[in-house]
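Batch manifest line 429
LIGAND: magnesium ion
JOB: complex structure
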Amino acid sequence: MRYFIEDLHKFVGETVELKGWVYNTRGSKKIKFLLLRDGTGICQCIFFQGDCDEQAFENFTSLNQEACVKVTGVVKEEPRSPGGYELSARSFEILSDSIDYPITPKEHGVDFLMNHRHLWLRSKKQHAAIRVRSEIIAAIRSFFDGRGFTCTDAPIFTPNACEGTSTLFSTQYFDDKAFLSQSGQLYMEATAAAFGKVYCFGPTFRAEKSKTRRHLIEFWMVEPEVAFNDLYDNMELAEQFVEYIVQRVLTNRQQELKALERDTSKLECIKAPFPRLHYKEATEIILKENKEFVVGDDFGGTDETIISSQFDRPVFVHHFPTAIKAFYMKEEPEDKTYSLSCDLLATEGYGEIIGGGQREDNLEILEKKIKEHDLNMEDFSWYRDLRKYGSFPHAGFGLGIERTVAWICGLPHVRETIPFPRLYGRLHP
Ligand code: 4AD
Ligand code: MG
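JOB STATUS: finished
ARTIFACT:
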């Protein structure tokens, strides 16, 4: 039988064998403590002199940090122990040693830790953040799967630019040239006509030569698209979705949030509906604090923080100027200088986590926009077909997973929100 630390509550009073790694050790003459981690939790194993195997007590000092071990003992309830249970240990066996483990309890610089990311993932906070990420991914799938959406994942090799040509990674595709996908959106517009409500979830790539705490080169995005939704339906879907994710993490990942020292009161109030600001209203708020902001421009990180600091829940900004948005955004019929776009800004200065809007469904206008954006008409022939054969109003959005994980975990940088981050200037490990 295999025993896992997270299941110890089922085996109180029984003798179990745990396999894992040495997280920490300490001890005195008569009693020794081993903190054992197995990935599912951390268990305190106590060796009492006279009570445990004599050899085990004598050899205790040979336990090195991160050595792989097998420990046998009796499960006891102990509220003061991490996880609420401990092991009254009888014996241990070193399955494989770990000499001079590089990440010690002392402080290390970020560069050192990033170079050792393959080991750093074993540390408590990193482990907690990735568990929260995993919960968020499960929440994403269950939200859409439970609402009649069909998962229609988009290709990663693509012939088209979706989010502008300046951040494309290009690669050889036999005799052709291909790009790594910046977004699955255009494909979701096609599958929305086939399935009505769809989403894709996968890695996306942007060759952004910027080192900020919000940008990754490779990041994961979930992108729903719904036939016959307009801008307002889209915001409603997005706020229900974000509320669902946050509340589910709060329900299922309390221990991890505690390890991350997250102030969860700031998450408990994340409930729909979220406030909505027209771009013009948002710029008035920004101008009170940032006099240099130019109306008509996109927001910088500090501008987003100025807006979000006014609210205790995420805030939508909609109707961005058409001139600063992608070619596929539908123009506001009442005033074409604004688009039916929306971004969702997270609380506490975490910035944009969602970008989306209603799509241009008129063929003539779409073709005009493709030309204005200097894109190749031929590349978009399949996409234009969607406007030729039963064009339909539709809207969707993309939520960036890493920014969402950073926000929910309260982490200062997206590099800790994905197991192996790809950053500008970092490809290893
Ligand atoms: O606002 P973006 O560029 O929107 C799109 O790609 C749309 N095509 C999505 C759609 O409507 N289906 O990106 C969406 C989200 C951002 O709000 C942000 O959370 C995340 O993706 N994102 C990044 N995350 C990490 N690193 C980067 N370089 C990111 N670029 C965008
Ligand atoms: Mg955006």
